[in-house]
Amino acid sequence: MIKVIIFVLGFVVGVFTMKLFPSETNIVIENVKEVPKNLK
To answer: Which secondary structure element, helix H or strand E, spans residue 9, and what is its range?
Structure first.
């Protein structure tokens, strides 16, 4: 149950951040996409 609450909170914060800082969010998304390439 606690994991579900944390997941929902993280999702809400993510959506809130995307609305407040669209350009910064795009940078973060690009960085996250690069991580799997760096792990290989």
So the answer is: helix 2-20
Look at the block and give the residue holding tokens 């993510």. 14
Domain extent at residue 10: 2-39
pTM, to two decimals: 0.47
23 φ/ψ angles, rounded to the nearest 5 degrees: -70, -45
Per-residue pLDDT of the chain (40 residues; tens, 9 = 90+): 889 999 999 999 988 888 888 888 888 888 888 877 777 6
* Structural domains of the chain, count: 1
Tokens 């959506």 label which residue?
A: 15
Cα–Cα distance measured from residue 24 to residue 17, given in angstroms and rounded to the nearest whole number: 9
